[in-house]
Amino acid sequence: MGAFLIFTGLVAVAVVALVGSYYMKKKRREGFALVARQLGMEYWPQDPFGLLAEPFALFQKGDGRGIENVIAGPYQTVEAKAFDYWYYDESTNAKGQTSKTYYRFDCVIVPIDAACSPLTIDNENVLTRLADALSFHDIEFESEDFNRAFNVKSPDKKFANDFVDARMMQWLLQNGRGTAFEIMGDRLMCYRRKLSPMEIVTLLGLSKAFLDRVPKVVYSLYARPIPLAPEAAHEQEAANEAKWLAGHYTPEPPDTPGAGPLAPPDGTV
User: Is residue 214 part of a domain?
Assistant: First the structure.
């Protein structure tokens, strides 16, 4: 009888947990849908864009990951995508039992009209200091306050210094704490630990404000190539082909050994 009661109790707890999880997910979806309507954007419960294929470092973490509750559309003159992102690390204990530890974030992706090198701007913490101690050093700037507050990494130090100028550092010190920023190619992603649906509006606003403070030199020194129109691209392709043929054409040798070039039709030399 005691075992039966214990089993019944465990089943009841599991049912309550499942119902509670379903209710929370439903409320969160409704919250995202409401925010989308208020902003004039569109909402999808699942990711219709294949955002996990984006090459951001955050999307490479964990043993499994996913995206849901996607809002997309114009936000203050920029095309933005906001969404829930999660990943988990899987571990196995001494008894062979596996468990998953989940990490949840809310993210916003907006375009940058430049061809940027990879760049991450994260808040300095115990883990980033440990990584720096293991020789994975971040980039140092003239502002000691900024260096203590943020951890900046990029394979291109010059690009990082061009991008994070004094104006950007001041804005980050005033507004960027608790938010991470990642630049990859012509896209910016900013993210925070899991937010409420209404707080997504704040993250969208931070993304736009960050874009507004990207130094003008970034757009001039790291301009994106301008794609050719279809007609111009076809003409360019034909011109390139003609040049290639001209540069690689070799006349066939004459059939008769020692024969010179053919004479003109009128017999003149």
Answer: yes
Q: Is 91 within a domain?
A: yes
3-state secondary structure the chain: CHHHHHHHHHHHHHHHHHHHHHHHHHHHHHHHHHHHHHHCCEEEEECCCCHHHCCCHHHHCCCEEEEEEEEEEEECCEEEEEEEEEEEEEEECCCCCEEEEEEEEEEEEEEEEEEEEEEEEEECCHHHHHHHHCCCCCCCCCCHHHHHHEEEECCCHHHHHHHCCHHHHHHHHHHCCCCEEEEEEEEEEEEEECCCHHHHHHHHHHHHHHHHCCCHHHHHHCCCCCCCCHHHHHHHHHHHHHHHHHHHCCCCCCCCCCCCCCCCCCCCC
Structural domain contains residue 237: no
Q: Tell me which residue range forms the domain holding 61.
A: 17-221
The verdict on residue 179 lying in a domain is: yes
Reading the chain (269 residues) residue by residue, the pLDDT tens digits are 666 555 455 444 444 444 456 788 999 999 999 999 999 999 999 999 999 999 999 999 999 999 999 999 999 999 999 999 999 999 988 888 899 999 999 999 999 999 999 999 999 875 555 555 555 678 999 999 999 999 999 999 999 999 999 999 999 999 999 999 999 999 999 999 999 999 999 999 999 999 999 999 999 999 988 765 666 556 666 666 665 566 554 444 444 444 444 444 444 44
CA distance linking residue 98 with residue 105, whole number of Å: 23
The number of folded domains in the chain is 1
